[in-house]
Write a structure and sequence with these properties.
By secondary structure, the protein is of the alpha/beta class. It is 39% helix and 13% strand. It has a 6-stranded mixed β-sheet with strand order 6-3-2-7-1-8, sandwiched between helices. A two-stranded parallel ribbon has the order 4-5. The longest helix has 21 residues. The radius of gyration is 20 Å and the shape is globular.
Length: 269
């Protein structure tokens, strides 16, 4: 998913702090990163951070914690067939000497960019801190360490390659979580889970789907205007596809598939 907003478990949070006037959402954005083939370039991370404006000005001004996971030395570990290609190995944190050097250079460039940015509102790296893990933790445990480092009530977790493609109702989500203590986690949709309800029904059956839907609620703050958040609202995808016929054809097919799905029908009900 592009991002999720959650409230860290009480055991992982510091003592409550006064809400800063420049952070009315009481939220920290946690960005997770790890060795990838594009290191030492910062372009991927820069592009992702540059889309935070879609979450609104309050979200864009939130403090950011960039968590750099560690790695495993591929020159001293035996690798399986599953890790036979550089890309598959790096997904498990296994790097060779060149990849290790590139990642270390990436982190050095990141530290420098963050230090130069400070609170400059024009920089994608504004209000950021870097947390480097000394060893490979994996996504879940790296995120756990990050959550133990924040003092805000909420966190928004963004993976380094998940960009916001359209307006995201971050303020409305926080308001919903404030108004209903049962809401602990909210995930944003992406292409792979757009038809999740149908996939769930196919795997577990219609009775399981009905039972799950009976537990759903629709907080008033998340009854959003379709003009901004509906399938016909403007997005980066529509702009890109208008210039690329092949992209437009695939995007159009996905949009039509979504409009004929049960999740879309529920939105209209």
């Amino acid at each position: 998913m592009a991002a999720c907003i959650s409230s860290p478990p009480p055991s992982t949070r510091s003592a409550p702090q006064p809400i800063a006037s420049d952070n009315p959402l009481d939220l920290t954005i946690i960005i997770t990163t790890s060795p990838i083939v594009s290191n030492p370039s910062l372009s991927l991370l820069t592009r992702t951070l540059s889309t935070f404006h879609y979450g609104g000005p309050s979200f864009e001004a939130c403090p950011r914690l960039i968590v750099c996971d560690g790695y495993r030395d591929g020159t001293s570990e035996s690798t399986t067939k599953k890790h036979s290609t550089p890309k598959s190995a790096m997904r498990s944190g296994i790097v060779d000497a060149a990849q290790r050097s590139n990642y270390e250079e990436f982190k050095a460039r990141l530290r420098s960019r963050v230090a130069k940015a400070g609170g400059d509102p024009s920089s994608p790296f504004r209000n950021s801190e870097v947390l480097e893990l000394p060893s490979r933790h994996g996504y879940g445990y790296a995120l756990k360490v990050a959550c133990e480092s924040v003092e805000t009530k909420y966190v928004c977790v963004v993976q380094h390659d998940r960009t916001f493609m359209r307006e995201a109702p971050v303020e409305e989500v926080v308001k919903a979580m404030e108004g209903d203590g049962r809401v602990k986690y909210v995930g944003f949709l992406m292409r792979s889970n757009l038809l999740y309800l149908e996939q769930f029904a196919g795997k577990y059956g219609s009775s399981a789907l009905s039972a799950s839907l009976s537990l759903c609620s629709r907080p008033p703050s998340l009854l959003l205007p379709s003009s901004s958040y509906g399938p016909s609202a403007s997005s980066v995808a529509t702009s890109l596809c208008s210039r690329n016929p092949r992209c437009g054809k695939k995007y159009g097919a996905l949009l039509e598939s979504y409009k004929s799905s049960s999740p879309y029908a529920r939105l209209l009900s």
